[in-house]
Design goal:
The protein is α+β, with helices and mostly antiparallel strands. Helices cover about 15% and strands about 20% of the residues. A six-stranded antiparallel β-sheet has the order 3-5-10-7-8-13, with no helix packed on it. Strands 12-6-9-14 form a four-stranded antiparallel β-sheet, with no helix packed on it. The protein has a two-stranded antiparallel sheet with strand order 1-2.
Amino acid sequence: MRNHAWISVSAVLVAAGNVIGCSVDDSVVAAGSGGAGGKTSTTTTTGTSTTGPTGTTSATGGRGGSGGSAGSGLGGAAGKGGAGGGGGSAGSSGAAGSAGVAGAGGDVDSGMDADAAAPVDSGMDVEAEAACVQESPAAFCARHRKNCGVFNGGDNCGAARQVMCGICRDASPTTCGGGGTLNVCAGDQPINRAQGGIITSSNPADIVGEDMGKAFDNSVTTKWISKNSQKPWIAYQFSGGARYAINAYSVTSGNDFPDRDPLNWRLEGSDDGLNWVVVDTQTGQTFASRFQTNSYSFTNTRAFPVYQFVITANAGSLDTQLAEIQLFGDPASVVDASVPDSSVSETSNPDVSSEATPDSSGE
């Protein structure tokens, strides 16, 4: 009788255990919660899972925690995946419940990568790459001291430019440049002083029609060329014994072969044609187009009867050429002619100079 009673109680308890096990697994055991998304804080919460209870029939493990969402804060790390739920303990006759699947990891906030990859701008490149602001047509003509016709010259940014600089008062085409100065109305300033004088050169006439006289003929369509010479010189003596304190000049490129253009040179003055004083030096000069005129000015108050243009290097050719040289300055006074200026250097050799220049600057 006792044995029958014990079996009945055991059956009830086993049945109750099965009911309780199912009830807990179906309605009480919660899925593991996902880890919290990464914030700007470094602490991250991982998902947890509740294990199933013991029973004769295996309890199913709790579901894995879902992955934490990425934090919206800059640089927040992704939340860790929730840990898988532990398997339910085996009942007296059932197998252990399977473990819950681990939650997937959260996505990384895209804001972190974009911010980290952005380069740091120091501002130096913007300053270094600032574009040259081109001067106005009026400023261009004024800097070259031109007041008529279409003038082809180098602008303030080093580029070739053609500008209509004006019309002379009588509107006659021959008036513009008629006074011997390119693109200047006859009778206006500045006046080209290199007119009617005596010209000498290291290469006077290497090619017929392209002789040294073409460098001072008030025309950019002709040229002087020195064959097989990268360092020629050409000199100009004013007519009638005149003396001028030249303080500006222009050089015009030839019609072809840019590698024949002058690159480095000196302008020198002399009282006797033997001893020379450097009044201006230029290096690394370029001509962006053919028939282009570059203008130069400098400080010089000493008047000379003769000046020479000494080319010390050209742009690479075995030959050297230019279309025109014009000289601008003031007539000599009695003081200029009698008192030498000791602030500038002298040399007796046209090809060797001390290179000392008084306040020279190119335009």
